[in-house]
Amino acid sequence: xxxxxxxxxxxxxxxxxxxxxxRADAQVRAGAGESALTRFANSFIxxxxxxxxxxxxxxxxxxxxxxxxxxxxxxxDALRRLVDATxxxxxxxxxxxxxxxxxxxxxxxxVDHYDATTATATPGERAAVVKDFVDAGAGLEAAGFCSTSSxxxxxxxxxxxxxxxxxxxxxxxxIHQLVPGLAAGQSTRSSIRLADIDGVALGRQAAATxxxxxxxxxxxxxxxxxxxxxxxVATIAVFLGFDSFxxxxxxxxxxxxxLNEAQFDDVVNIWDDATDPRAIGVAYDAEGTPKRRVDLVxxxxxxxxxxxRRTARRADGESTGHAxxxxxxxxxxxxxxxxAGGDASVEDLIGxxxxxxxxxxxxxxxxxxxxxxxxxxxxxxxxxxxxxxxIARPIRNLRFTQSFRDALGPGNVRRLGAARFAxxxxxxxxxxxxxxxxxxxxxGGARG
Length: 448
Description:
There is one protein chain. By secondary structure, the chain is α+β, with helices and mostly antiparallel strands. It has helices at residues 9-20, 76-92, 116-119, 123-135, 199-212, 230-243, 247-251, 309-315, 327-330, 346-351, 404-407; strands at 25-41, 44-62, 65-71, 141-157, 162-179, 183-191, 222-228, 270-272, 294-298, 301-302, 337-339, 355-369, 374-387, 390-394, 398-403, 413-423, 429-445. The chain has a six-stranded antiparallel sheet. A hairpin with a 2-residue loop joins strand 13 (374-387) and strand 14.
């Protein structure tokens, strides 16, 4: 089934507003489309699943009391129950003093993050990517997944705002293991196009890491120079975006950001831009506000935040188009992060390291202090000692306790590598470089 499917999200949204029938200020989010997944383990495909799903979310405000309810049932009876349940829930809620009102009519940027070939990708086409990955690691155990999805979206509210769009995405995550649990290498990629995912290149990368990671040794904790692969930097960017450049955490006094201060090295530039051709998703947010580019860090200076209508009202500003469902709890945060890179390869960065570590991934990351962005977590899937610009030996996974803000802080960024899309520890994707950092604090081994 293609993205157009059997259900038109725009029609769903209008039907729900008609059923509200003026009894509340209301906004409706609707979506419909197909998601498909091909999974493999022990170097064999063992599962292929596909699901077509339509969904509707209704948010209302009645006499200052707001509520939200969502459903995946889209027949008329189910939609009437959705409306009745949402209105009933609103009447039981306390007055919502931070209700920002509905987004007024406004044009949405004309972006189309959609690829027709990906929207109609077959199990065989996903299997071909998997086969390329597996074949590139002959003699190793491979596991992972390849997924594609295509969805159409619509938004409508009683203030007259209407928006819609469509989007596709393709994702791949694969691991090659030489010694399960000890010697492994992983590769990930995401794009709006399945054709952008090169199973051969990803397989070679993961296999090379797995083979190099054999027979790891222990390493004493301490401060080390590091080269962080793109996946590590994606994790840093996503944590900073969600916990720090989120206007709600900033206004609540729980962010490390100090606007207009040089908190980062002057080579650090981070922004969010859903209108970039490389971005994934649609060009409006959960409140129907058009998305726009927001600079978060410019030449090392913290300059911006992601706002929804609630935080914009508190800050006496404007929404930047970053509302998400449940934003009254989580706040607004960037979902299409970019960080400027250089032209150096990872090998170039390693070559500039006299003695330090190469880290492939960060895992099990947990925030210890949001106001300094001190995070604890583990390395995984390939950690190596580098000596005289060359990989010397693999080491067992390490625990780190490190401020993600300070990691990119003034004077700590020695060199930027080339930027590409990379998956973070939290599964979100960011377009980020690899980096050579002057200091990263390791506190022990993964075993304690």
